[in-house]
Write a structure and sequence with these properties.
Length: 144
Amino acid sequence: MKPLRVLFAVALFSATSAFAESAPRVEVFKSASCSCCGGWVDHLKANGFEVSTHNIDNVPANRKKLGMPDSVGSCHTAKVGGYLIEGHVPAADIQRLLKEKPKALGLAVPSMPAGSPGMESARPVPYDTLLVDRNGSTRVFASH
């Protein structure tokens, strides 16, 4: 009976370790004073992402440095799996991006639409998540 317990414990530890290693890591660059960014970070964590945040003084300058076009700008920029994420992109869209691996710069939800993750509202508005190509062009990746 004891060897069975040891085997079970090893299997459980291995499964837990594999899950922890597979949790996508997101690095978020945001303003310290932006509370909606914290709501988006909480949304990502609740959906299985491992998140680290960096409070920065100049979000637009950082966005430009990373290569995300200002035309799709929002209040924070993130990096995950070799992609950039701009704004309040839903976790499901990021998961799909990481699964499908399109040749692109990343995803963006321009501005800060009411009803997007971190911008919860009693009056949500329809919005699109855009796939941003490396040349700066965009196309709709998902509609919400």
